[in-house]
Amino acid sequence: MTTPDAGASQARAHATIRDVAKLAGVGIKTVSRVINDEPNVSALTHRNVMRAISELNYRPNYNAGSLRRSGGKTQTFGLVVGNVANRFWGAVHRGVEDVASEHNVAVLAASLDDDTAREERIIGELLSRRVDGLILATVRPDQSALVVEQQRGIPIVFVDREPENIDADVVVTNNRGGAEQATAHLIAHRHRRIGYLGEPGGMSQAQRRRMGFNDALAAAGIAASDSPVIDDLRDSDAAHAATLEMLTRADAPTALFSSQNHVTIGALHALRELGLQREIAIVGFNDVALGDLIEPGLTAMAQNPYQMGRIAAARAFARLEGDTVSQRIVVRSVLIPRGSGEIPPRRT
Amino acid sequence: MTTPDAGASQARAHATIRDVAKLAGVGIKTVSRVINDEPNVSALTHRNVMRAISELNYRPNYNAGSLRRSGGKTQTFGLVVGNVANRFWGAVHRGVEDVASEHNVAVLAASLDDDTAREERIIGELLSRRVDGLILATVRPDQSALVVEQQRGIPIVFVDREPENIDADVVVTNNRGGAEQATAHLIAHRHRRIGYLGEPGGMSQAQRRRMGFNDALAAAGIAASDSPVIDDLRDSDAAHAATLEMLTRADAPTALFSSQNHVTIGALHALRELGLQREIAIVGFNDVALGDLIEPGLTAMAQNPYQMGRIAAARAFARLEGDTVSQRIVVRSVLIPRGSGEIPPRRT
DNA sequence: CTGAAAGCGCTAACAG
DNA sequence: CTGTTAGCGCTTTCAG
Question: What is the Cα–Cα distance from B254 to A324, expressed in whole angstroms?
């Protein structure tokens, strides 16, 4: 009854390297050698240390180690995306994870929901945890604040969104060219009045897609004024309402270009509600799950988010290994014709 | 020319608390007080310290802090799921993230792909990073190895998969009851020969769904032998092939029960290929994106993965706050009839 | 092949 | 209100 709080189910703390050393009858440096697979440990000593480790269920504290380790690496990356529950970002996440895990690096992932305030807070927290690299899909265009972090040797790679006022690696899709190609596809199917359903415009890729759309119209000699545009569609409900509105106008378009995933889903719902899914053509930027199972199948400009994630992570590791020149990598999207984009215009 | 390597673009290291103290002309403890919002700092001192902090772009090293902090918390959770790129797990992840972020806790997320070897490695790495809590969808049934970690005070919560040989919080769906209900739904629509398309069986939830399926058959007085079963469908391609095979048998079933997401997608493809999507009824466990847009709409037992993630994280925090009794929480799935499950059997 | 001493960046405990 | 000292668990350096 000397120790007061010594209940049986009391939480036992983690064993330390010292506990292991004592139990194995060696110095702590020897234990350190064993856990880091360093040479100069006799087979016998090695065995004794291993026995002590497993007896105590010892787990080296990686954070404590990296405090002293030369380079001070934490073997952790920070990943900041729009929303980890989103199909696109989930795939990016997985791409980053796969490459990171080859380097024994874990990934701290966070969602932003296009929230500017959150952006700064989350990135700050990641930095305070001393991540070795940052892979970001940021909301704010101006990222000059991160320059000082780069100078501290932390690689920063931007995915899908293009930052301003910073010289960094960027991994994006060919937004402008892809949108142009998708729009041209509709034009090739004889459409002249094409509605544009756009996502919120602050982010660079939204602007680029819109430009590509206009490029295609211009190339075909179609006046932009013939094409109704509804922008800033935050979610599929907004897209749904906008599509209903656009298609019930007197001069309704005969085809739709949807600039994003959720927008496409809202538009598809609206088309079905109006019974127009076989009358009005639609091409969506970003593929959608089951896009091949709906009728008609969704014609989509499919991005490759998994690959984007892999490449972004690979760039971060390249910087860590000494690469100093920024790259802007474009992962091409491909047009998948499945029916919805090949519907000819209704005769009037 | 005294310092050799002093190139202009050389990486400047992080400023330390000592640098800040020196620049502000105070002791390090005062800086510590400021960054931790502790009392007993005069307004003037506070201002000076803040100035030094921003001048040096100082960022407290959270890992170093937690080494000494009482409790030693890292404000980090580990999340281990099947695949972060999967719609279901992405939603779980987001649920965990949302609750964690309310507590200022970051989430280290990792994918397992049902790989047993990976499971042990990844959980070990998370533990070495001293996560404050673990939320796991494990592959191996026996989780007794984690008991020692629990005793060290690390809350462990299992999501979607039920572990053996450990007393821990568990968050699952009503797999058995849900499967029974889905099957009963088909029976209510006069089906008597219902095919079962199952996922790999090692994991508890697969078994439970199968049991629920059998429960419903038994309750309706249908011999289990009338119902063809194909199990162990690893992905949608396997499910696709299995469905084709099952539906071209002489005694093909008139309805299908699909036990999981990817299986459902494969089955839907097969049905379309055979042109039977309006002939053969199907109910899927787990909803599928765009399940309402295909024709007929997919009748699904929809789980609530986001909620499961939230609840799992909440349990972890509850344990951290002293709760000691394990809960088994069942998040009910709901049947969404959309057409595919209400197709009557073909007349023979 | 092995270990003792110093110190990473920070917070705890105390003394002013 | 403020600063000093010790030490978290580990790696580094260097002396055996």
Answer: 63
pTM passes above 0.85: yes
Cβ atoms of B260 and B285 within 8 Å: the answer is yes
The secondary structure of residue A140, as a DSSP letter, is S
Q: Which nucleotides of C are covered by protein (CB under 7 A)?
A: 1-13
Chain A residue with CA closest to B151: the answer is A11
Paired with A158 in beta bridges are A136, A170
pLDDT digits (tens, 9 = 90+) for B272-292: 999 999 999 999 998 887 889
The DSSP code sequence of B82-134 is S-TTSHHHHHHHHHHHHHHHHTT-EEEEEE-TT-HHHHHHHHHHHHHTT-SEE
Beta-strand relationship, B169-173 and B156-159: parallel
pLDDT-derived band of residue A205, with 50, 70 and 90 as boundaries? confident
**What is the token pair recorded at A335?**
């047009």
Whether the link from the prior residue into B296 is cis, omega within 30° of 0, is yes
The distance (Å) linking the CA of B34 with the C1' of D1 is 13
Return mean pLDDT, chain A: 91
For residue B134, count other CB atoms closer than 10 A to its CB: 24
C-alpha to C-alpha distances, B144 to B13, B57, B124, B141, B170, nearest whole angstrom: 43, 46, 14, 9, 15
The per-residue pLDDT for range A183-197, each reduced to its tens digit, is: 999 999 999 999 999
Residue nearest to nucleotide C10 (CA to C1'): B65
**Residues of A whose CB is below 8 A from B109:** 84, 93, 97, 107-109
pLDDT of residue B1: 33
Residue in A60, A156, A150, A62 with CA at minimum distance from that of residue B76? A62
